[in-house]
């Protein structure tokens, strides 16, 4: 073998060895005789960073006055870690909590049928009661502040616990202490099985279509598509979408509906430290006059849809300023029945507006009469916001 070839092979061998060593040192844990382990640099960094956590767990498990369940310590540590961020939408959920959380977007559950969020003062505030549920029938309204559940004080710091307490088997009761307009009162409500029907459609006079979306769950966009097709088949000339008291839901469902209504372009942008995304519409747009009804109970995904329609000038908004929840959550399923819900990004309307804590102001600000309660079906006699939307559509129909 020539010296040149020898040195080439030696260089290749050194390179391969170094790469292999780097890979082992940075990504692989290797067991050695005597119980010792070589760990990656990242694992070593994490072990040092959380060393005190392990030490506290070890002390409590072995020396606390009463016997301690290690899994209880672990759950407490995980909940504390998520809670330390002071973000009511970031929470570690045990098996019971995670199962209850998942029912909100996948089917039915026992409860009173209200959607809640946290305001700037850390109050638990009702975003909206769900249509045809005990909460709605009991007279709970958007904007009500829940102070106590079954006599226990609640706030944004224990949002998920409060939600869990409000849920329960059909036929059982829960008592809420509520503050509205500075006055405090209690309501005892009997729980029912909450079935989530999210899309309702009607044809108004002059062939003006009306679709109410109460929530964005896993079937909302397909149900909306069917409703839209029914109205078009019946000769619809303009469309009113009612997002009042809609607390939001699944981003994907909202984007799918926006794709049916907007011409090609941006629907929403999400920006976070870990990832950022832009969502686009790919269709040709609705092709007819469009008005969207909103109020202070319109939140999250509702604001994404309303903001996209307003910014893209695909239609106009009528009503009052929306809730102002511009945070995006994602869920990690650990595969053992537990999960982590955490805020991963903020979302921005097509014009780059961050609506967190501010909401979206409609093109036409219209208040409802002071003592008026929204009806289950469209009311063209007393619903001033719907009347205004109807007049706008009628004036634009050719």
TrEMBL record:
One GO CC term on file: outer membrane-bounded periplasmic space
Pfam families membership: CtpB_N-like (PF22694), PDZ_6 (PF17820), Peptidase_S41 (PF03572)
Keywords on record: Hydrolase, Protease, Serine protease
SMART domains, A to Z: PDZ, TSPc
InterPro entries xrefs: ClpP/crotonase-like_dom_sf, CtpA/B_N, PDZ, PDZ_6, PDZ_sf, Peptidase_S41A, Tail-specific_protease
Residue ranges of every copy of the PDZ domain listed in the record: 98-167
A GO MF term: serine-type peptidase activity
Biological process according to GO: proteolysis; signal transduction
Keyword Isomerase part of the UniProt annotation: no
Keyword Cytoplasm among record annotations: no
Protein family: Belongs to the peptidase S41A family.
Full protein name: S41A family C-terminal processing peptidase-3
């Amino acid at each position: 073998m020539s010296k040149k070839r020898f040195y080439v092979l030696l260089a290749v061998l050194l390179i391969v060895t170094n790469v292999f060593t780097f890979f082992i040192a940075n990504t692989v844990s290797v067991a050695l005789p005597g119980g010792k382990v070589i760990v990656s640099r990242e694992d070593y960094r994490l072990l040092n960073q959380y060393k005190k956590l392990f030490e506290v767990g070890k002390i409590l498990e072995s020396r606390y006055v009463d016997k301690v369940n290690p899994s209880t310590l672990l759950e407490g540590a995980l909940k504390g870690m998520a809670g330390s961020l002071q973000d009511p939408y970031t929470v570690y959920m045990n098996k019971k909590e995670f199962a209850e959380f998942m029912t909100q977007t996948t089917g039915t559950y026992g409860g009173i049928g209200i959607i809640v969020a946290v305001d700037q003062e850390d109050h638990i505030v009702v975003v909206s009661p769900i249509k045809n549920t005990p909460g709605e029938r009991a007279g709970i309204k958007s904007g009500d502040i829940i102070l106590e559940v079954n006599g226990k004080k609640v706030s944004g710091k224990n949002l998920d616990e409060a939600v869990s307490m409000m849920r329960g088997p059909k036929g059982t009761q829960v008592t809420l202490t509520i503050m509205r307009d500075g006055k405090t009162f209690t309501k005892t409500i009997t729980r029912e099985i909450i079935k989530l029907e999210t899309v309702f459609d009607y044809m108004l006079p002059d062939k003006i279509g009306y679709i109410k979306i109460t929530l964005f769950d896993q079937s909302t966009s397909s149900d909306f598509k069917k409703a839209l097709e029914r109205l078009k088949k019946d000769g619809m000339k303009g469309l009113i979408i009612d997002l009042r008291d809609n607390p939001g839901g699944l981003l994907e469902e909202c984007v799918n509906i926006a794709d049916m209504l907007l011409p090609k372009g941006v629907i929403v942008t999400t920006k976070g430290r870990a990832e950022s995304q832009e969502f686009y519409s790919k269709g040709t747009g609705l092709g007819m006059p469009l008005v969207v009804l909103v109020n202070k109970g319109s939140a999250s995904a509702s604001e994404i849809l309303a903001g996209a329609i307003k910014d893209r000038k695909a239609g106009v908004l009528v009503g009052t300023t929306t809730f102002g929840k511009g945070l995006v959550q994602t869920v990690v399923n650990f595969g053992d029945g537990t999960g982590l819900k955490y805020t991963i990004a903020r979302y921005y309307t097509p014009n780059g507006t961050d609506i967190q804590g501010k909401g979206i102001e409609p093109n036409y600000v219209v208040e409802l009469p002071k003592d008026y309660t929204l009806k289950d079906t469209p009311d063209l006699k007393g619903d001033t916001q719907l009347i205004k939307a109807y007049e706008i559509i009628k004036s634009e129909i050719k």
